Amino acid sequence: MNFFDKLFQRKPVVDLDELNRNLAPKLEKIRRPAVSLCKTVEKRNSKFGGQPTANSSVFEWPRDNGKPLAFLGQLDLAEIAKVYQYDWLGDRGSLLFFYDIVEMPWGFDPKDKGKWRVIFQAEPNNTISYPEDLTTESRLNEIYVSPKLVQILPNFDDPAVEALCLSDDEVDAYIDWDDGVSSSHHQVGGYPKPVQGNHMELESQLASNGIYLGGVEGYESDAAKKLESGARDWKLLFQFDSDDDLGVMWGDCGRIYFWVQEQKAKQNDFESCWLVLQCG
């Protein structure tokens, strides 16, 4: 290194082609399949907004404190399974997603439970009308979606990336590559695309078990230490992005994430799903 390089501490020039060649095989180890939900004009059972399809003989519109929740959308599990079959998610029936889009709970408070619902329908057969007291604000535009299999990478701060022991240049290349190629914002399964922090499995585990997470005290409590191993049981069920076409924005251009415990999902039990909202 010459005198001026030492004086100004110039970084050596990086051969980007070689960097990417060396990085590619490492990334293959951590890619994960996800089902991206792509908008389509073709009428399908999977959709965002509109009115839900359910078994009208048993379905009751979910409410919180007497107010009806907004219907976010429905996912046909057979349509999902056609492109990718998760071993923790069934291939029959449908899932209906509801949320309080007025209060927009974040999910860090155990008291938020009930402000969202995920309802499994084994045999949906009728279009359900909106409750008369459901506000216009809570009626999302109807958009059909088509599932598509994609391969995605975790966020750069995910433990799977840390385990690769990448160099600083490789981390920079990883972030650029991931942002430009593998992002999938409306999706089922796979790695989440976090906005604020990559610890939603732990947040779901702790908050769903009664620990308030509005400060670091909750995460550092003795009760949290006893529960934290259960974070690995949580799977990303549905990631829902802010979307102008639907007329929804979660906080400041954020996303909401529905999480489910693997064993409960295998039994079509989604009553204990937890929701996390993140925004910038």
Automatic annotation (TrEMBL):
Gene3D superfamilies: YwqG-like. It holds the Pfam family DUF1963. InterPro entries: DUF1963 (IPR015315), YwqG-like_sf (IPR035948). This is YwqG family protein. It comes from Undibacterium danionis.
